[in-house]
């Protein structure tokens, strides 16, 4: 494990994804993990961790990030690009080596997918901003992971893997990773095996669900994103199966393939 990237700050550590990432880094003795949170946040974190609570205007950011090697952002709000830009600027001044933006989902480089999710533009804006800052010495890694598997099967996220950092020194690119490459039918079969019963299956019109999802989101109701995310990750050409056009980074990251049945059984049994 490289000692160059040891001190890690997680932003958005109270969310579902942030909680998982925080737990994994906290459990790894090779890293010193801390948390960056707003003063206005009511979130409670493990007592043994250092928590830097900054004002909504982030005047204390520079001091909070001094001595940190990596900043991982899991901010998910629509204004995340504005917030992340402020953190990026302070990270550069503080001498942070790498910034991991709040991607962790669909491939935002896919133009067809982004037409469905225009509110994800903040993700692209952040990456473009990071690119503009490369000459100032900050490296970045954006993780394309698809939807968290546990959310896909409507279960809470269980911390299994943290974003690997050590093998990625001096990088400026998107990273594709997935623990397994399976279809919906394979997931269904695994769930039936884990529960020892046959499931009732309802088939829906993907195009109709996409249309409803887009119309719902246009009204400001982002519950419509659920059906649209399913569409993007299931229909060919929208970047859901990014193995079609780009090699996975699993080997580079040291990510081992996982057994679908074992993971599903673990979720079912809690």
UniProtKB/TrEMBL annotation:
Residues 6-136 form the NmrA-like domain. It comes from the Eukaryota. It comes from Botrytis byssoidea. One of its GO terms (molecular function) is oxidoreductase activity. Keywords: NADP, Oxidoreductase. This is NmrA-like domain-containing protein. Pfam families: NmrA. InterPro entries: NAD(P)-bd_dom_sf, NmrA-like, NmrA/Isoflavone_reductase-like.
